[in-house]
Amino acid sequence: MIIDSHQHYWKYSPETHGWISDDMKVLKRDFMPDNFLSVIDEHKIEGTVVVQADQSEEETEFLLSLAKQFPFIKGVVGWVDLKHPELSNKLKGFSQNKILKGFRHIVQAEAPGFLKDPKFVAGVKALGEAGFTYDLLIYHHQLAEALDFAGKTTNVKIVVDHIAKPSIRTGEKTHWELNMAALATFPNIYCKLSGMVTEAKWNDWTYEDIEPFIDEVFESFGADRVMYGSDWPVCLLAGSYNDQFSVVKKYISRLSEDEKRKVLGENAKRFYNL
């Protein structure tokens, strides 16, 4: 049983997807569930969690509409303005749709101090009160700020996307690993084993470049709080779906069968209540 806990869909437009730069030309097209069916068949994927790529409520509704059409989408992580004065009412409305599991904000694009904003922190805490999860998308240099944030949001199930985007391309991990270990001391925080190949050298990475970073993830979070995610189609910047999945499968081959099941699906099902 395999759950891919992190993927995206979009109908490409330069205005909406301005983050897709010229060196990301492979992503400048539509990516829809139909394009993913062959991957599901090849890898025997039972279900996926689709995550927002655009910061709008229209994006949330778009993903929910796809989930209605494609049963393999087991959960949606959408977007809502977490500082909105009517957030509680918005969450009440969203809670009517059981396929909507949580929300994400693209914090990696925000200025320093964003995670310390009392209004944003209150919004994330409201997610926990409403039964939603939160995906934390940050770069490694934002981890110290994330620690302060984590201490204020212990009532929310939080998952760190893309192992907090360490500098795999340079191999530097000292500050990243220390902060990740500290973040993992909060039992409500999980980590996605995703987005790693795109933090390496896109056209010249090896398994050995990534392995030390996965070591630290498992040492800090353990097999009970780590979940597999492909970050498809963004992963295509650095390789095929199979290329990135092979890294994870090679690493977890050393784990017990029970631990493999947790990483490849059971942890995601438990975290997102799939």
**Global outline:** globular
- Backbone structural class: alpha/beta
Q: How do the SSEs run, as a string of H and E?
A: EHEHEHEHEHEHEHEHH
Radius of gyration: 17 Å
Low-confidence parts: none
What would your notes on this structure say?
α6 packs parallel to α7 (207-221). The chain has 9 helices and 8 strands. It is an alpha/beta fold and 274 residues long. The model has no long low-confidence stretch (mean pLDDT 96). It has a single domain, classed as Alpha-Beta Barrel (TIM Barrel). The chain has an 8-stranded parallel β-sheet with strand order 1-2-3-4-5-6-7-8.
Please give a handful of descriptors for the protein shown.
274 residues; alpha/beta; TIM Barrel; 9 helices
Question: Which SSEs are present, and which pair or pack?
Answer:
Elements lengths: L1 E6 L29 H7 L1 E7 L5 H13 L3 E6 L8 H8 L5 E6 L12 H12 L3 E4 L6 H10 L5 E3 L13 H10 L5 E5 L13 H15 L4 E3 L12 H12 L4 H16 L2
Parallel strand pairs: 1-2, 2-3, 3-4, 4-5, 5-6, 6-7, 7-8
Helix pairs in contact: 5-6, 6-7
In short:
It contains 9 helices and 8 strands. With 274 residues, the protein is of the alpha/beta class.
